[in-house]
Amino acid sequence: MKLIHSLYAFGLLWAGYPRAAARPSTSAGLISWHGARFPSLNTREFQNAPIPLTNFGNNFYTTNIGVLGKEIPVAITTAHSDMWLFSSEVVNSNTTAIHAELDYGNSLVSGTIAFVNITVGPFVNVTSGMIFRGLCMLKVADLVEAFVRVDDAINMTELFDNGVYGVLGLGFENASVIQEILDENKYDATLRPHSFASSLFGSGPGISPFASLIFGRDSGSGSIQANGTFTFGTYVDTYASSLAQAVHLPVFSDTSDEDSSNGTSFPTWALTLDGLTVNGTQYTLNSSVPQVPSGKSLVILDSGYYSTIVSPDIVDFIYSNISGAAYFKEVDAWIIPCNMPANLSLTFGGQEYLMDPLDLTAIQYFRLTNGTEVTFCSNTFQSSSFRRGSGLPAADMILGLPFLRNVYTLLSYGNTVYNATTSEGPYVQFVSVTNATSASDFSSIRHRILANSPMELTPSEFIKTIRAESTNASSSSDNDRT
Ligand SMILES: *[C@@H]1O[C@H](CO)[C@@H](O)[C@H](O)[C@H]1NC(C)=O
Ligand SMILES: *[C@@H]1O[C@H](CO)[C@@H](O)[C@H](O)[C@H]1NC(C)=O
Ligand SMILES: *[C@@H]1O[C@H](CO)[C@@H](O)[C@H](O)[C@H]1NC(C)=O
Ligand SMILES: *[C@@H]1O[C@H](CO)[C@@H](O)[C@H](O)[C@H]1NC(C)=O
Ligand SMILES: *[C@@H]1O[C@H](CO)[C@@H](O)[C@H](O)[C@H]1NC(C)=O
Ligand SMILES: *[C@@H]1O[C@H](CO)[C@@H](O)[C@H](O)[C@H]1NC(C)=O
Ligand SMILES: *[C@@H]1O[C@H](CO)[C@@H](O)[C@H](O)[C@H]1NC(C)=O
Ligand SMILES: *[C@@H]1O[C@H](CO)[C@@H](O)[C@H](O)[C@H]1NC(C)=O
Ligand SMILES: *[C@@H]1O[C@H](CO)[C@@H](O)[C@H](O)[C@H]1NC(C)=O
Ligand SMILES: *[C@@H]1O[C@H](CO)[C@@H](O)[C@H](O)[C@H]1NC(C)=O
Ligand SMILES: *[C@@H]1O[C@H](CO)[C@@H](O)[C@H](O)[C@H]1NC(C)=O
Ligand SMILES: *[C@@H]1O[C@H](CO)[C@@H](O)[C@H](O)[C@H]1NC(C)=O
């Protein structure tokens, strides 16, 4: 069984949500520093331009921030509100004596809370301490960020192996674990920076309080933009006109359920989902969150998650009708023929958003014990034991990158930033970037990838082979012990 588990330790990363954790720090995951250095930032002309995102194998996306005169990549996540940086990135930061841990469920970082001036994107002037964005100019001193200066990390190797030593959270200030810990330590609120988004938008006039994101898809073909872009207070030109017509989806807020044993309702980028359709058949949605209207579900947008978490019923609804697909019970996963598509669309605010079938199955490679490498495809909509009751916010689904690659997303912070100039609550807008025509490229793209991949076993062959290997492995290790 061990073999199967390591097989499914593919991808990233963290699943779940950070919370102030009472668990003791451990040195088990202490990583050694071998970080890539980045060239120091050149002075560039002011440009009202999007900030590039770098796509790491569709698993996470990074943007560069300027810290203490260096430009370093950090993974961005919409589901969390805190920033952390590995200590070697921030040797001279202004560090408090306050210990903090960010527990993401499957991974954890710990260190001390520190403050640092940061800039975002390449269109900044680190030397002069200025950040330029749109028509405004901010003193970097106003963009001081509290972060966890991490000395110890567990299960973050996927980031570290790629030279990424930090995470930047785009969540709401009220969900910040750092702020919570500073509160507990009675740290003077007037000496304390705000969370990133709140700080960026609240520090002065000029930047409209919204971010927008587009995540490129690495489909192995090169014909599709693989990276992505990211803006603050400005739009990506291509989508600006469609955005004007896109419905405002209010962020779900649920104060009545706060701190219930079923999960903590901290403010997060959560939306009510109106519909889920596979090949024209509508799934009947429901919700475990009492405040969600019947026939709908509550979903959290998580740009830091490579997968999408839904109920087991929905996983089966999506994959069980795909011809040739087989359920691999031991690892709770579907194995799907890599060239078989399904049409999944999600409906928000009465508008249907089609997903590219490339985002429904992930190509994986696995080396059999006889040395042969094989290709297989598995489900990207997964069920998970990361449910309510383990410090998670109340929600029915976590919509990660597989969905987010299909939309241009605008996150409007509204009145949640400090010093807000609007009374409007936060909302999300989506502009679809996938249509039936672009989705129909699936076959040719997959065909091209498979032509350059090791042989693909049929799902049932694959499962049979792994089961046989696993049985042999456990019986041979039993033999070893006796
Ligand atoms: C560190 O932070 C404290 C409190 O915010 C401040 O008084 C001090 O000037 C800061 N030091 C540096 C080097 O930024
Ligand atoms: C690290 O990941 C493994 C496999 O996903 C998991 O079993 C383990 O509990 C994780 N460790 C921590 C501290 O979360
Ligand atoms: C960047 O800062 C340096 C040093 O203060 C200054 O000489 C330069 O003009 C600045 N560049 C821009 C584009 O503002
Ligand atoms: C941020 O920059 C300002 C101006 O350069 C400086 O006074 C301040 O101490 C810096 N704060 C931190 C936390 O480094
Ligand atoms: C609040 O916003 C006003 C202008 O909108 C700005 O002048 C002020 O500096 C801001 N307050 C803080 C603490 O940044
Ligand atoms: C994506 O970004 C990386 C690093 O920023 C760059 O090397 C690569 O060429 C980019 N890929 C595409 C397809 O633009
Ligand atoms: C929490 O869960 C329990 C048992 O699952 C349920 O009886 C209760 O109604 C739930 N409370 C809320 C506020 O959802
Ligand atoms: C939602 O529907 C599924 C499938 O009908 C069912 O198994 C589940 O218990 C329902 N959940 C709630 C909270 O009603
Ligand atoms: C959806 O339709 C496609 C053809 O359009 C078919 O190949 C596929 O098997 C269907 N999937 C499901 C889940 O019904
Ligand atoms: C290894 O096993 C697979 C699955 O049984 C088989 O298809 C492949 O031919 C084998 N390779 C070798 C080198 O025996
Ligand atoms: C954030 O929390 C404070 C204090 O609990 C509360 O007064 C405020 O309304 C909250 N803001 C939002 C946007 O939830
Ligand atoms: C479909 O999407 C592609 C790629 O995004 C775009 O070039 C094309 O114009 C779209 N077609 C329609 C009918 O919207």
From TrEMBL:
Domain Peptidase A1 span(s) in chain numbering: 59-421
Signal peptide from the UniProt entry: 1-22
An annotated Gene Ontology molecular function: aspartic-type endopeptidase activity
Gene Ontology biological process: proteolysis
UniProtKB keywords: Hydrolase, Protease, Signal
InterPro entries referenced in this protein's UniProt entry, alphabetically: Aspartic_peptidase_A1, PEPTIDASE_A1, Peptidase_aspartic_dom_sf
PANTHER family recorded: AGR407CP, BETA-SITE APP-CLEAVING ENZYME, ISOFORM A-RELATED
Family, similarity comment: Belongs to the peptidase A1 family.
Name of the protein described by the UniProt record: Acid protease
